[in-house]
Amino acid sequence: MIPPMMVAAECYLNQGNFRLAEGFIARASSIEMHKPDLRPTTKAQIRHNEGLLAMAKNDLQDALIDFADEVYLTSEEYGPIHRKTAIGFCHLGRLFHQTHDYLNSNSLFRQVVEIWTDFLLPIHEEITAESIVPKISRMKFKQKVWIEETDRFDAEQILMHCYINQMECHSFPEDNKFRVPAMDLAHTCYALSLLFLILKKPH
C-alpha cells in the first residue's frame, strides 16, 4: 500500500502541489508507526519523499536527516554501493550543492557515478560482444542482466542531476574556492554515454 502512495506523493511534489504530497506522506508515516516490521526499503521510500518535501520547502536540516536515513535504510537491504542507495547519495549531493558545500556535494556525485558505471559497463560489454560475435558471447555470458524500466528512470534522473550540478561548479572562475575537476565531469559524461548506448541498442 505504501509504494503507490509514495509514487503519488512524488508526482504531486513534481507538480509543486505540496499539500496533496504531504497528505500521502503523512498517511504512509502513520502506517509505518503501526507496522515497525516494514522492509527497510519501504521505510526508505517514505524518508525519500519526506526529504524531497523538506527540500522543496527549504527545510534543509530536515531534508539532510531524511536523505541520510534513506541512505542508511537502503544500505541495510541492498548495501552501500548499490544503485538504489545511489538515489539517496544523489539527493544528499544536491542538498550540499544547494548550501554551497561543493566539495562534499561533488564527493557524493562521484560516488553515484561510480556506482552506476560499475552497473552499466558490464551490460554494455555484453550487448557489444553479442552484436560482434553472438555465438562466442553466448558462451561467455551465461546470465544476461538488462536494465529495467525503473533503473532506467533512476539512472537518467540522478546522472543528469550529477552532470548539471557538476557542470555548474566546473564553470566557476579559476580563482573560486572549489571547481569540479574536469576528470570528474568526464566520468559523469561517460556514465551517461553508457546509459544512452544501452538504451539505444536492441536487446
Automatic annotation (TrEMBL):
It comes from Elysia chlorotica. This is KIF-binding protein. Gene3D superfamilies: Tetratricopeptide repeat domain (1.25.40.10).
